[in-house]
Amino acid sequence: MPLPDPAPADPVAKLYRDHHGWLSIWLRKKLGNSFDAADLAHDTFLRLMAGRRRENAGAEPRALLTHIAKGLVVDHWRRRALEDAYLQAVAQLPAREAPSPEARALILETLLRIDATLRTLPAKTREVFLLSQFDGLGYDAIAERLRVSLSTVKRHMQAALTACLIAYQAD
């Protein structure tokens, strides 16, 4: 005797049954491999379930799934680029100074969290933060370069550091 359908009225379950195969193929073409495609197809449906748009999916389900999946693909490539840059930097270190695999994973996780936090900031705040933290410029030099006041640089740095602190404390 076949098992009953657990939730025949669940619109997400129907969407999954009707469109998961198509979405996986679409993602495989975008990503070049079935492993990442399977992960992102899964994440697409998780985002759909977590969001408020699942009730609106009936009209154009593939358009909604594509929209969600495209955002995940962009995030995937951004993470991959950040990871590649970090691994290239680590490869330049002498073997005795290279972090352990566990430390690498923690550092990469932190870098991804900082990247995600910085993407939420206004462009000018992000620029001030990057000039300070990655280019090593002092506040006076940043103010001169960007042609803004020192108090503006301080305000942007306070906003950026506060955002990073909040992101760090969220876990």
Give a brief outline of the structure.
By secondary structure, the protein is mostly helical.
Key traits:
mainly alpha, 74% helix
Report on the structure:
Helix 5 crosses helix 7 (150-169) and helix 6 crosses helix 7 (150-169). It is extended, with a radius of gyration of 22 Å. The chain has helices at 11-31, 34-50, 61-91, 101-119, 123-133, 139-146, 150-169. The protein starts with 10 loop residues before the first helix and ends with a helix. The longest helix is centred in the middle third of the chain and has 31 residues, at 61-91. By secondary structure, the chain is mostly helical.
Topology diagram in text:
Layout: H1 11-31, H2 34-50, H3 61-91, H4 101-119, H5 123-133, H6 139-146, H7 150-169
Number of helices: 7
Oligomer: single chain
Largest sheet: none
Q: Tell me the fraction of residues in β-strands, as a range.
A: under 5%
* Classification by helices and strands: mainly alpha
